[in-house]
Amino acid sequence: MNDQVMENREEHWRRTRNLMIINLIIWFFFAFVVHWFARDLNEISFIGFPVGYYMASQGSLFAFVIQLFVFVRQQDQIDRDCGVAEED
Amino acid sequence: MSWFRIQGRFVDNLPKIYGIYTGGFLGFVALMAILEQYGGATADTIGILFVAFTIVIYALIGWLSRTMQVDAYYVAGREVPPVFNGMATAADWMSGASFVAMAGGIYMGGHSYLAFVVGWTGGYVLVAVLMAPYLRKFGCYTVPDFIGTRYGGNLTRLLAVLVLVVASFTYVTAQINATGTIASRALQIPFEVGVWFGLLGILLCSMLGGMRAVTWTQVAQYIVLIIAYLVPVFWMSMKQDFGVIPQFAYGDATARIQELEPMLGVGTLKATESFAGLSALVNLHATPGDSALAAWKFVTLVAAMMLGTASLPHILMRYFTTPSVRAARTSVAWSLFFITLLYFTAPALATFTKLQVLDPNLATSIIGKAIVDVNALEWIQKWSEIGMLKIADSNGDGILQINEFFMRGDIVVLATPEIAGLPYVISGLVAAGGMAAAMSTADGLLLAIANALSHDLYYKIIDPKAETRKRLLVARILLILIGAAGAFVASLKLTSILGAVAWAFCFAMSGLFFPLVLGVWWKRANRAGAIAGMAVGLGVGFWYLYMVRFAGMEPWIGLDHLRFGIVGASASLISMVAVTLMTAAPDAETQAMVDEVRIPSGATILGSTH
After folding, report:
1. Would you call B323 an interface residue with chain A, using a CB distance cutoff of 8 Å?
2. Which of B98, B189, B399, B457 lies 20 to 30 Å from B359, alpha-carbon distance?
């Protein structure tokens, strides 16, 4: 393996790992943090729902779905930039 | 139907084929509606036709997908497009418990039960970010195949098989139980017979074609179950003027319930009688418990369900079937999308049903009405007869109070069409949907167990020289034996549906989560560490479950038997890291293998047939 390829692979894994950490932070927020404060959030109303209830029944779910579709695009971009993407 | 044989054409024509299938199914529903209106068909006839018709279709798909090729049997030939794999995963994932019990759980449990909704969706973030693309690049047939090759050695492979069998078998008995319950009710046969009938349907789908057959039946089952779940909700919402997409418009209904709760005494009036398996409504609908412990219990249940999701082999193996690493990632996103369609509807269904029962302004309400009138309602009589519901005039005033109405949560989905006065055809549809949900999950689980035993135990450890024919024969015999064992255990009715489901998640995360994640993300992780992680994780998980559930130990900081995976997985992480650091780093060859797994391009680690 030549140096350029090695360098690309290291760069690829560094960016992949950073993307993973960012995604886990977002995940942690919508999985745990918002629900820890559900009682306080219920004081606020969003399209008729108490927000604490809304986040557990819909809000977090939508956040996860959107997060994953964005993640797929970003990871694919990283793979392409570093020349390790699969052939189309 | 020759296009099923010609692989290229079949896969290219998927949207068309499943489009026709969906149209055909809707046509069948319309035909049943006509039969009910003009042909005088009874509810029983419609129920039988719905369940029988859908099972025949699944069995037909299973038969058409039969194969004698190893990679078709184990990984559906790795040619399932992401969107369709997403649907198959969603059906694989959403069990009888999701379909039948979730809305009921929210109805009875209120906010605290929503931890399942959050946990069973958010786990897919972990699957996509940490696991699925790397396992796909590895090119394994089963989850123990990854563990066994990454860490090396038969003991690691064997331990992974053990965790897989413990977790999946716990889960599959609950699913066979659910198919038995639905089949017995729809076809009017005894439960014990229903269990074996359900198993027969499951085996017809999976035995001849393995993963390929299961994939294409699961897509068909997803279409049935999502139609069956959404149609009653849309219908009920239109009847109550909440608009066409009720999921966004039930905020007012939630607020109305919060307003009614103090008036009706929800949470303050406790039941004075008790009936086995039934309960009165005591939990507030949208208000979380007022303590740090309540919040802690919510987030720990979320965590247990999420880590369990990312460790369950029957889910992870679905991503082995995509054509590429990129497709595996995309497929996880689609899976979550299709799952969310059902999971964000369940709370809406629970809310609407509760409003129907509670709100004195609605004609359907029963709380606050005269008990004589309530007992005259057809749905009350029907569900009382089979012990799913009980009206008791505890204080003898002739009026039904909130603490005098007892029910099983499951009837929220099953009886809602009747409570809302929808035609029988909807009840038949719901029965078919529940059957599809339970069958598809049971299929995936049975296949995960049988594949691990036939590939990892038989082929990789016992007889590495076995020919293809023999391998696939062994796989099929194991499928039948495990199915029969599952049906036998299910017919003993040992646990309630939900208890067993949550346990499966906890077993899987205790033994597999960290060995899988660290296998990709920590190059230093070695064989001794993985063995310790699996053995200690599963062992501690077992011990803790036994202590809190059966030996009367006080749970540590609210970690009860539904959350024992938190304890097991923590033990797994600590022991795996400690033992790894105390022993030598893996050899250069293994480290190079991990480097290869981390990039999408290039050949898979294991060959396309191995």
Report:
1. no
2. B98
Are the C-beta atoms of residues B266 and B281 closer than 8 Å to each other? yes
Return the biggest CA–CA distance within chain A: 60
Does B283 reach chain A within 8 Å, measured CB to CB?
Answer: no
Please indicate, yes or no, if residue A87 is contained in any of the structural domains: no
Give me B298's structure tokens: 């919510």
- CA of B137 vs chain A CAs: smallest distance (Å): 11
Domain count, chain A: 1
Supply the range of the domain harboring residue B204: 16-256+287-352+422-597
Mutation site, A16, A37, A64, interface B, largest B CB count within 10 A: A64
Closest Cα to residue B326, out of B182, B498, B128, B176?
B128
**Of A7-11, B38-42, B484-488, B525-529, minimum mean pLDDT range:** B38-42
Q: pLDDT tens digit string along B453-463? A: 999 999 999 99
- Environment class of A40 (CB within 10 Å of its CB; exposed 0-12, middle 13-18, buried 19+): exposed
Task: Provide CB contacts within 8 A for B106, sequence distance 6+.
Answer: A57, B113, B114, B117, B346, B347, B350
Distance from CA of B14 to the nearest CA of A (A): 20
Beta bridge partners, A49, equal A46
d(CA A48, CA B529): 51
Strands A49-50 and B389-391: unpaired
State ipTM: 0.97
Distance CA B56, CA B439 (A): 13
For residue B389, being part of any structural domain is answered with: no
CATH of the domain at B593: 1.20.1730.10
Q: Is B4 a domain residue?
A: no
Residue from B98, B125, B352 to probe the interface with A (highest A Cβ count within 10 Å): B125
Decide if B380 is inside a domain.
no
For A38, the domain range is: 3-81
d(CA B601, CA B599): 6
Domain presence at residue B197: yes
Q: Is the Cβ of A60 closer than 8 Å to some Cβ of chain B?
A: yes
pLDDT in tens, B143-202: 999 999 999 999 999 999 999 999 999 889 888 888 887 888 778 788 888 888 888 888
SS (H, E, C) B201-263: HHHHHHCCCHHHHHHHHHHHHHHHHHHHHHHHHHHHHHHCCCCCCHHHCCHHHHHHHHHHHHH
A20–B contact, CB cutoff 8 A: yes
Contacts with B114 from chain A: Cβ below 8 Å: 53, 56-57
